[in-house]
Amino acid sequence: MKKTTMTLSQARLERALWQADADMTSSGDIYIRLTEMGLPSEVAIRLKELLAIVRPIGEKIISLGKIIALKIIDFIEKHPNLAAGIALGAAVSSLISSIPLLGQILAPIALPLGIAVGAIAGHRIDKANGGAMSSSIGAIIIAQDLIEIASVFFQSLIDTIAILSSDFDT
After folding, report:
1. What does each C-alpha distance from 21 to 29, 66, 71, 142 come to in angstroms?
2. What global pTM score does this model have?
3. Where are the domains of the chain?
4. Which domain of life is it from (predicted)?
């Protein structure tokens, strides 16, 4: 996990670059990228409300919704099989929960288990495509995969929040 400390001016520069990227990207472009990644068009259309969120940060008006959407897209593009595995796990758990009588009992277990199994499988495929996967499987390897997934996701989230909120500390 990469831990770097940014200065206030570095964070402001990064945020300005993100804002420039958001300004150059239309909502239609984001919709196209999301649907090309396999997101159902109904879900992509509902994200329109997120794209419209703008907030003042410091002395600037920031397209917060677009920046968050672009960061999510970047994460998914860097980890495509992880995202697909999570979606597949959620879909399977949804199917399990729709089974009459038994589905209601299995639903609380099926959703987190389906997402976790899908995420691990997708993460392992991403690692294999990058040439960084070992062929061994065991409880420790699976735990390491879960830690890697959480680490990558939360580090990306922390970096994004830190940069977007850099002017709140002053």
Report:
1. 12, 9, 11, 37
2. 0.72
3. 1-78+134-164, 80-133
4. Bacteria
